[in-house]
Design brief:
Blueprint (H helix, E strand, L loop, with lengths): L6 E5 L1 H14 L4 E2 L1 E2 L1 H5 L3 H11 L4 E3 L2 H4 L11 E3 L6 H10 L2 E4 L2 H9 L4 E7 L7 E2 L6 H4 L2 E6 L10 H16 L4 E3 L3 H4 L9 E2 L22 E13 L4 E2 L5 E2 L4 E6 L16 E4 L2 E6 L7 E4 L11 E4 L3 H8 L3 H6 L8
Parallel strand pairs: 2-11, 3-4, 4-5, 5-6, 6-7, 7-8, 7-9, 9-10
Antiparallel strand pairs: 1-12, 12-15, 12-19, 13-14, 15-18, 16-17, 16-19, 17-18
Bound molecules: pyridoxal-5'-phosphate.
């Protein structure tokens, strides 16, 4: 075993569970599931699923078949729904063999699923996002009618905006519910939950807000930050007035400065857009990032925390709504790009 790396992603599990409960409450009579695709939005799907299953969550959504694999021993595979559905006969056979719930997105996928014997599946209906899903006009096909549908779902294109498309999608989703027999209906992602009871059905599918993202103002006081990127100070240096920092010396000290070289860089997902802009936290002290973000390092001003030295840890200021506003990256990107070198 090699020594522990100098960066870790601290996960506040209590905040994660709190956020799920908030979204479950906002879901009214519907139950909240959890979107855990892309390794739980980068936080570690096993950890997320374990915590949320413990809190009572009973429906988990991944995108790829390979994302279901690490979860098979944690929860009943029948509670794992695979959003991309079967692309090949092998995918369908895998779903069947493990008892996973494929999301059927087209007549072709329905046929693949029926070819391996069918069984309980979910059905994605396209009501206007024009991404994955069976078009409304194909819902009356005999192949779709042969499915045994648990969750009849659709996905909102603009849940985080007040636009007429939301109402249109609800109406189409309701029409689809009248056309295809199913056990449960689902429409809302995180932001969709806040649009109200019309959008709830039996099951909601929050993702980003579970992990500390705030997709709409109504949630800003309720959602807690979950993911905290932390990294160690590798070296402390004394700068003189006129010294530049990092590639291309985009920061030049105008006075003597004590700075720390921190083990966090763009290879870890702390992208160059944080150059001369990021902040790391040490207790109450806010330490600005000086100069360019390198692949493996940033340099921070230690003036506000003179007690810090080599081997001490700092936390990147990574509250998602503010980090998104500062960088122009979406809250989703900020989480999912965090790299493999973090200990999770
Ligand atoms: C990712 C995803 C979700 C979760 O969306 P958030 O905006 O993260 O809450 C729900 N449903 C589907 C189909 C998704 O792909």
């Amino acid at each position: 075993m090699s020594p522990e790396p100098p960066l870790r992603l601290r996960i506040d599990e209590a905040a994660l569970v709190h956020n799920w409960r908030v979204l479950d409450r906002w879901s009214g009579a519907a139950r909240a599931g959890a979107a855990v695709k892309a390794d739980g939005y980068g936080l570690g799907a096993r950890r997320v699923v374990h915590a949320l299953a413990g809190a009572g969550c009973e429906d988990f959504f991944v995108a790829h078949w390979a994302e279901a694999d690490p979860l098979l021993d944690l929860v009943d595979p029948a509670t794992i729904s695979v959003l991309h559905g079967p692309l090949t006969a092998d995918d369908a056979a895998y779903a069947k063999a493990h008892g996973l719930r494929p999301v059927i997105n087209s007549v072709q996928q329905a046929q693949l699923w029926l070819n391996v014997g069918g069984g309980l599946c979910d059905l994605m209906v396209d009501t206007g996002i024009n991404r994955l899903g069976v078009p409304m006009a194909e819902l009356n096909s005999a192949v779709i009618a042969a499915l045994t549908v648990d969750v009849l779902m659709s996905h909102l294109a603009s849940a985080d905006e007040a636009v007429p498309l939301n109402g249109l999608q609800v109406e189409r989703w309701k029409a689809a519910r009248g056309l295809v027999p199913h056990r449960r209906a689902s429409l809302a992602n995180s932001a969709g939950i806040i649009l109200g009871a019309d959008y709830h059905g039996d099951l909601t599918r929050p993702g980003i807000a579970l992990y500390g993202g705030v997709p709409c103002a109504a949630l800003s006081n309720e959602i807690r930050q979950v993911a905290f990127p932390e990294a160690a100070i590798l070296q402390v240096r004394a700068l003189r007035a006129g010294d530049g920092v990092g590639y291309n010396a985009t920061f030049v000290a105008d006075r003597p400065l004590r700075v720390g070289v921190v083990s966090l860089g763009y290879a870890d997902g702390y992208l160059r857009c944080w150059s001369d802009k990021g902040i790391v936290l040490a207790g109450k002290a806010r330490l600005p990032v000086l100069g360019r973000v390198s692949m493996d390092m940033i340099v921070v001003d230690l003036s506000a925390a003179p007690q810090l030295g080599e081997g001490d840890w700092v936390t990147a200021d990574y509250a998602l709504p503010e980090a998104s506003a500062r960088t122009g990256l979406s809250q989703y990107e900020l989480l999912t790009l965090l790299g493999r070198r973090f200990v999770r």
